[in-house]
Amino acid sequence: MTAACHTGGAATVTPARAPRLALVGSPNAGKTSIFNALTGLHAKTGNYPGVTVSRFVGTCRVGADRYVIEDLPGTYSLDPISADERILVDVLDGRLDGVARPDALLVAVDATTLRRSLGLVAQLLARGLPTCVVVTFMDELSRRQGRLDVAALGQALGVPVVAVIGNRGQGIAELRETLTGWDHWPVPTIAPPTEAAERDAWAESVLGFAGYHPPQPHRVTQRVDAVLLHPLWGSLVFLAVMVLFFQTVFTVAAPAQDQIENLLGRLSGLVVAHVPEPWLARLLGEAVIGGIGGVLVFLPQIVLLFLLIALLEGVGYLARAAFVMDRVMAGVGLEGRAFVALLSSFACAVPGIMATRTLPSAKDRVATMMAAPLMTCSARLPVYVLMIGLLVDPSARVGPFGAQGLVMFGLYLLGAVSAMLAAWAFKRLGDRRGLALPFYMEMPPYRLPRPRSVLLMVWDSARSFLRKCSTIIVATSFALWLLLNLPVHSAHHLGAAGVDAGDPAAVAAYTVDHSVAAGLGRLVSPVFDPLGFDWRINIGVLSAQSARETFVATLGQVAAANDPEHPDDALRAMTDADGRRLFTPPTLAALLVYFVYALQCMSTVAVLRRETGTWKWPLIAFGYLNGLAWLMAYLARMAVIALGG
Amino acid sequence: MVPIHPQPCPDQPDRVRWVIPAGWLPCVGPLAACPSPLDALVADGTLVEVAAEPAAVLTRLGPGRSWAVDGPRVRTALHAALDDPAGWHPAAAATSDAALAAAAGALLAGAAGRFARSHGGVIDLVDVRDGVVTVRLGGACHGCPAARATLRERLDRQLRRMIPSLHEVREARG
């Protein structure tokens, strides 16, 4: 990065570090297109220290020079009402620890909404940093009979103005060229006014000087919106889209998930067959491969979900869906976009929590994240199926419906209603000032999504999901395996205990029965005794703490059933120390309700940690959900006993 | 509030040209008096010169002052003054033809000229006498049947708004 490495005539002073340029603009102003065009794939994503605002930093190379481009959260103004805008203002002022103040600003403005964008431009110019205005969607402006003289706009604003058409790369070369002179960019002689009426007059005058004619309304957009934003038709279309969305995530992902499971199963088999040491083979096969597999099976859902979200967002439908749902979500104090995240959580809370990134308000994001784990995720399904099978006779009917299906539906409903109430509660707690955030949502015209942006979004979410969550998943399943299989008992010890050392099932049963985990299961029994759980269920509940599906497999292992995936019969016959049946209706009801509420998924905890950037929210979620789970399970047990169960 | 925005004057850092709607002020040239509170800024030395142009107000800053500090005050005062166009009085009773010539020149350099150029045409100012403005239509305008309508619709109407004493706009012959 020094001038010494290239022999250019004049001894120019090269800064020791690359200049930092912040990219600012309204949502949908084409900021991401500019960012991608300038930085290519050299972007790093993360969070701002201590807050739930995603951060994107990339590097742009022009010749031998490097420029650090930081894509700041989209905003309509610099009046910090939401936490995201607070971050933006803090970064611009250099007040955020660990984030250097930018040296210059790139302001993206959409030519089709230039009048509104000038308010933000005025506020940014008033900060006195070297600024370049990047005008986007000029092609759409002229297609819709609008006009703008870009050179005159630059003259009126007193700063460089470059027009780019992001999806064709037009103007990007000129923008790169402009970047090199950032420290010589002209600044306005007199900063734009801060007072509202004067600022409006300024914007009006600048627009007039630049010969601006706003575009005609987009005719296709208008006609389609007449249906999609209609209170009745819009809601119906929304329902249809959501059913398709839900179906696609569930059904299309399923074969891919099976493939991954099969592949890993075979891999695990190979390990068991070829690793001579049995304990090492089981450690590798069950803990390592099983652990990675637990993550990988989520991958098709994640990829598919983000592909669908990116497509819906790129086309412009997500803004409409959010608008339609806004009235419903307003009842719990959230905005429409939170609904999409909650809906995604039906598949899995992990992508649901990641989908909260579309929410501009950090408070709404937190409230939605706290509610998302309550939506019935696909991991609860095996547990529900098993428990309902034990609880309800398959032939029992209520009217035309099977009783089992009704109980299942009731559990889904309980989860959804609880999620809404939780979101409402967290929104109320988070907004103690009672300040209603003005909610400004723009309906962008329908556009064809850019394949590059869509793929980048999918790639980015898949990669970060794999990289960061796999570490936690692998670690927990490793630890769990050790807990279930230690201490190792010698053949002599087994013989003394009356166990046939040659029967692997008997050895496994004995080992599990006397494992550290079993000790833990007995240790926590004072907590779970009021719910009717014995130490074997406790182990299942504890192991389900890493991922819910493990409850089924763990109970199977503990019950030493021949088929660990279908331990129904062995479980049904299971009795407690006094010879009474273990799985009575009150206990089963308590277990089911416990699984509705408990936060038992370490992937969720890990992704909460990653998305919020602190341990505070995962700890709160963990505490309140598990506390609530215990309380509700206890009430459910009492209710069933009172009903004569 | 009258739409205005400042633009620097090249190589004259003490001057700022405030772009205003064309024809807003009834006069052009240096001013004998401008409405308060703008006159107070001239009195206290913040500004040493205020001049009206057909589509702008030119302000010159007093010595030792900076636009960064005084610019917002000048803007606020200018906004108030522009709300009272009748309070603006020219320094010398400029002949009405001179005002007309300045206004026509400004229009041809600005919006009207830009419109003609966007159609491949050129409009040149030939003469201004007794309230009659004579222009020559060149480029694609020459021989264009719509040129006369354009002349009347755009130049005549906009000029009349600025200088109500305009008699007519004529096309030069030959």
How would you summarize what this structure contains?
With 645 residues, chain A is an alpha/beta fold.
Question: What is the fold's blueprint, element by element?
Answer:
The complex is a heterodimer of chains A (645) and B (174).
Chain A: E1 20-25, H1 31-39, E2 43-47, E3 54-62, E4 65-71, H2 83-93, E5 104-110, H3 114-125, E6 131-136, H4 138-143, H5 150-157, E7 161-163, H6 172-180, H7 196-209, H8 219-228, H9 233-274, H10 278-296, H11 299-315, H12 317-330, H13 337-344, H14 349-355, H15 362-371, H16 380-391, E8 397-398, E9 401-402, H17 403-430, H18 451-485, H19 491-496, H20 504-513, H21 516-523, H22 525-528, H23 535-543, H24 550-559, H25 568-572, H26 585-597, H27 602-612, H28 616-642
Parallel strand pairs in A: 1-4, 1-5, 5-6, 6-7
Antiparallel strand pairs in A: 2-3, 3-4, 8-9
Helix pairs in contact in A: 3-7, 9-10, 9-11, 10-18, 11-18, 12-13, 13-14, 14-27, 15-17, 16-26, 17-26, 18-27, 21-23, 23-24, 26-28, 27-28
Chain B: E1 5-9, E2 12-19, E3 29-33, H1 38-43, E4 47-53, E5 56-61, H2 67-82, E6 89-90, H3 96-109, H4 111-118, E7 121-129, E8 132-139, H5 147-162, E9 168-171
Parallel strand pairs in B: 8-9
Antiparallel strand pairs in B: 1-2, 2-5, 3-4, 3-6, 4-5, 7-8
Helix pairs in contact in B: 3-5
